[in-house]
Amino acid sequence: MNSLWTETISIPEREGLPGDIKTEAVVIGGGMAGILTARLLSESGVRTVVLEGDRIGSGQTKNTTAKITSQHGLIYDGLAERLGMEAAGQYASANEKAIGEYRRMIKEYGIDCHFTESHACLYSRKDEEKEERVTQEAAKRSGRESEKDGEMAGRLMREAETAKALGIPAEFTTRTELPFPVSGAVRFHGQAHFHPLEFLKGAAEGLAVYENTRVLSVEDRQVRTERGTVSAERIVFACHYPFVNVPGYYFMRMYQERSYVLAVDTESPEGRGAFLPEGMYYGVDEDGLSFRSADGLLLVGGEGHRTGENREGGRYGKLMERAKGFWPGCREKFRWSAQDCMTLDGVPYIGRFSAKTPDWYVATGFGKWGMTNSMVSAMLIRDSIIGRENPDAAVFSPERFTPAASAKKFVSGGLHSVRDLAREIFMQPRALTEELPLGHGGVVEYEGKKVGVYKEESGEIHVVSVRCPHMGCQLEWNPDERSWDCPCHGSRFDYTGKRIDNPAQEGIK
Prior knowledge:
Strand content: 25-35%
Distance between the termini: 24 Å
Structural class: alpha+beta
Number of strands: 25
Shape: globular
Largest sheet: 9 strands, mixed
Radius of gyration: 23 Å
Number of helices: 11
């Protein structure tokens, strides 16, 4: 299941690390955050190399919906309330600057990446079902909104007012391009979208990037890989989820979520034109959908869940069913999924890795907004390394302490981890291997032991350990991706045991 992006570009392969080398800065991770950090450091005269365990852009960058926007859900009003207007202003300023930095790089380096100026809208769908139930009363009291509609409209209005107060060109509206009525929307002007891998290819030109070079460990100022060591004055972890547990303790401060995307052709069989919105849309309702156009197709995103909690599957089917509800004749062209690191207070961790490692830096916890936050990371880390003060840095500091904003998620995340660690010890297998249908996987009893089994349509059986090598949580089967997912920290493995996503650094037996 490749994304639209991977199917429409080919990036030349690069050589692996040739042996032991020395440099000024080394970036671990060749995704958007890693390549941008290396580019900005190189522009500043810092000799930098990038180490990528697979191919550049092969991680989360290839699975994005590629919106370059400072509009990150209902965030600004909440940030202002929890952390204060100054911190909310830093977040807004950094992300608005990031959009401008993309424009600069694309123009300066002549990168052809389908960069398109656009507006971005948060929206809440009008509660038509509830509206129908109050039709008779509405006849007496014209103009009455449902309780849900009024509440969401109020939240969206407050978000628009706060964003505007923070310097973002935002407005509240009830008119959109969407094929259904909304109770309200917040429109941000001056945003954009692009083809992420086309951009990444151009941004990486001329950089020292070593592919197929998996990092095994990091100690002090030395990075050890399968192909040799890199000694550097500065080390940047831009590998999605930091794999070093101590110091930093990021495994206690983040969890991961999965979401799903379909690229559909919405053109009607009767010859009516396809629905291709000029703007980008993100639903703030519990079941809200994301929309943007790309290459003549409509990207429809949604059906998200915490990683490791999709035992029943069917997410793509549900997404297609919802798309057909709006465009009955639409046809699926591509499908893919993304994985996002979620922080406790909703703000990424960008800056010094920990107080004990002053020469290490980290960029993680981007939520669902990896493109803009990747550029924010590159700018903040560059400035820190070259000794330039950045007025927006404080809110992103990994060493920040925000108990009021983080307490609820910290307790919830801790309970998740305790529960999922206990599964491996106490829970019984759910079935015997012979009871597992063809084409399905699950935690079963096999030769008297609890294991993970995937049974191919041919009847061939793949047996793996259900213990995550990261910290020992019990893995769960994800039928939509045919993968074993860790509900504690989000590591993922294919049905043969090969690692797909970190923080685990190795596959399962």
